[in-house]
Amino acid sequence: LAGVGVAYKLLVAVYTSMDMDTTSLIDKYVDLVALGTIADIVPLVGENRIFASIGLERLIMKQNIGLNALINIAGLSHKELNSGDIVFGIAPRINAAGRMGSALRAVELMISEDEEQSVELAQIIERENSIRQQIDQRTFQEACDIIEKKYKNMDDTSLIVVSSDGWHPGVIGIVASKLVEKFYKPSIMISFKDGVGSGSGRSIAGFDLFEALQSVEGYLETFGGHKYAAGLSILVEYVDLLENRLAKYVKEHITQEQLIPPLKIETKLELYEINENLLEWLNKFAPFGPGNMRPTFYTEQVMIVGFPYNVGKNHLKLKVMKDGCDLDLIGFNLGDLLPFLKKGSLIDIAYSLEFNTWQGRTSIQGKLKDIKFTN
Question: Which CATH architecture has domain 151-259?
Answer without folding.
Answer: Roll (3.10)
